[in-house]
Structure formats: structure tokens, C-alpha cells
Amino acid sequence: MIDEADRRIVEKLASKVRTESIIWIVIAVFQILSIVGIAVGIYNLVISIMNLDTSKKILQYPVGIVRSFEPLTGSIVILCINLFFGAFIGIIGSLYHIFGVRGYVMEHKDAFLRVEAALTGHSPAN
Predict the structure, then answer these.
(1) How far apart are CA 74 and CA 34, in angstroms?
(2) Which of helix, strand or coil describes residue 62?
(3) Whole-angstrom Cα distance, residue 108 to residue 46?
(4) pLDDT tens digits for range 68-125
């Protein structure tokens, strides 16, 4: 059984991922229209659309969240790609992901692990 406080934490993460997706869609459109950042813009657009689906999956079956968001390497790579090829605007989305979304997951890591344990029947692994 998932308690109400943990459920709200999961719902807020889904909302943050949805917000991140919208931010990236706007960034991608600007990048594509700028011509200079068209390749990165298309990449960011595809990823943002996939993240919209991720926000729904988080609500349906919030398992593997910490495992998915904890590694920082991918976030740093995306930040660098956007810094070098996507112009300044791409940095905004990267920083929102690192501090707004990933930071939220790390701040509530124990809650996400409790939810996962409740759904899978395994004890939370810290």
C-alpha cells in the first residue's frame, strides 16, 4: 500500500516531467527555427515527446524512478551538447532537468524507493 504523502510525491514528479517536456518542446522549436541548432532541436523534440509518455508511466507504475534519474552523466552530456550545438536556450532545459526534476527525485529518494517496494514486494534498497 502506498501512503498518500508518497503518492503526492509521485504525482508531483510526473507533473515536473510533463513541465520539462513542454520546456524542451519550446526549446526544440526555437532551435529548429534557428537553422543553426536544427539537429539538436530535432533530437530535443523527439526526447521531449518521449518524456511526455514517461510522465504518464510514472503515474501508472512508479518503479525504477531512482535508478532512472540518479545517474548524472547523461544529464551532463545533454547539457554539453546543448551548450555547444543548441545555443544558450538549450541550457535552460538541461538545468531544469538537473535541478528541477533530478534534484526532486534525489530529494525524495526514500519515498520513491518505498513506493517501488510497495509495488514490487521487495524491500527498499538505499
Answers:
(1) 25
(2) coil
(3) 28
(4) 999 999 999 988 988 887 667 888 899 999 999 999 999 999 999 999 999 998 877 6
Amino acid at position 106, single letter: M
Q: 0.85 cut: is pTM over it?
A: yes
Element at 56 (helix H, strand E): helix 38-60
Cα separation of 13 and 47, whole Å?
A: 17
With H, G, I as helix, E, B as strand and everything else as coil, classify residue 17: helix
Rounded CA gap, 101 and 13, in Å? 7
Cα torsion angle, 64, 66, 72, 78, sign:
positive
Backbone angles phi, psi at 35, to 5 degrees: 65, -45
